[in-house]
Amino acid sequence: MALAPNRVDYLPIIDRPVIKWPNEARVALWISPNVEHYEYLPDNKGVRNPWPRTPYPDVQQYSYRDYGNRVGFWRMLEPLDKYGIRCCVSLNLAVLEHFPEIAEAMKQRDWDYMSHGIYNTRYLYTYSEEEEREFYRDCIETLRRHTGKQLKGMLGPAISGSVNTPDLMAEAGLIYHTDWMHDDQPVPIKVRSGKLVSVPYSIELNDSSVLRDNHYEADYFAMICKAQFDQLYKEGAESGRVMCIALHPFLIGQPHRIKYLDDILGYIMSHDGVWQTTADEIAEYYISNYYDQAVAHAEKLG
Amino acid sequence: MPAERKPGMDHQHYDWSPLSTREILRWPDQARLALCVVIVLEHMEWQPPAGSFQAANLAGGSVARPFPDYARISHRDYGHRVGIFRVLDVLDKYGIKATVAMDALTAENYPYLVRHCLDRGCEIIGHGVSVSRMITSDMSQEEEEEYINESLSALTGAIGHRPVGWLGPEYGESIRTPQLLAQAGIRYVCDWPNDEQPYPIKTPEGELFALPLMLELDDVVALAHRRVPVDRYAEMLKEGFDVMYQDGKQNGRVLGLNLHPWLIGQPFRIGFLDEALGHMMRRQGVWTATGTEIIDWYKSCHSGD
Lengths: 302, 305
Prior knowledge:
Chain A is 42% helix and 13% strand. Chain A has 11 helices and 9 strands.
């Protein structure tokens, strides 16, 4: 009897098909800024309170996030541009509608776009299957309308989901889900129909977890990002690894923090053998080259 | 029942015994310190059964979110898929045989991991059914007996013999757990982080010893609950070891180190464990041993008691 939710076959990292990234790269590095909008007066569905500190509005917390879009985003672009990073943005799609300058800046840089829902204050927990289907139609259509791009993946809005999420994502034509923190490589996620993979995102190398939830400062964030890279780079000589750094402009874009992002990117990008890419590209490459092998290998392992 | 104001403990599990007045314990080959590394392989459930108890500070997923919490359960699963192999590689580097505390859901659903741990010479000990089902005094005696039996039967089926050691998920016990463990054939229990030497537990049936772990050096307690920076954690391990090594010259100590691969096995953390164990293993007089080896030795030293 498989353990619920029975979405992932057990594949120990020491016993699975060897992954070779393009150009013999050891580490596929993707940088994921979470570009978000939190509503001033969200609808609290009673499962998770978007602003738990006070009755709405909570202008301190609302404007702290809004700072990310007004100021932090633009400061964050400086080190990203300096090192020529092409990001895969985790995007609340309504940002494209509210803040056209941000949309334009992302388009100019040819970023890839991963859905992070419509707003960071609208969670998937309470959606019926039909509502969630409509949600994917909305995400896909909104992205296409504003950027011309096809949506390929999602980090659930504020990392929320339903039990049906992987099935409905695949049904809508999405190919990757990044709510899974279980691996250093992509792995197949079992769905009713189609193919879906997890691409490793990070709640460890994530400025929100490190700085906000766990109260460290950015020098520590830089130290652990570099340590993470060193370990994965070493292991990646044998079989390719994925490294994600998750950012939030309202956090990393603070004046006292930005130099640490420069420090992290400067360190990593000084190495050969780094495939600086996006989750879209990692998912496509994995599905083309390794998905079937991985499924067959898992069956063999039993 | 509130304590009665009289000398000794306010329960019947063991006698009061300050280490400062205790007879001298010597480890094999005049070692000063026994290093026992416990690795926890435990499963966090997608939907724990109704009525099961989860510790209020249960770690995983950075923060807990409402169901379905993909991030939290998959963060935990990282240990089984990736982290465990890094941790075992570091232990191998220093010739340390691990004592693996494995829950029933892991034993039954990860046969690859069971074989792997046995092949690498680990001792496997009982660790309940899952980390989402902690033992507490809310359980009736019958429920608790059934729970312990379920855990030990699953391990017996998976490893081919009955385990003799026990660490409850989240160090959980009811007031009757030590007695029920002894009845079930357990010889040592790691739930009581109150000492730097093993000591006997009083049971009406069977023979049970406590093998204490160092709670503050537990990676979950240090890194997840107390948010100690991981470089500082490596220093804590080294500093703690240095003092115990010094103290162990007078009277032998056991450094019980409890590690969780989903946490310490993350790429950016593993190097710090390597560094700390490297510091310890450079010293002469460190006996790396499994729980059973330590308890066997301890018992042989006290057989005249």
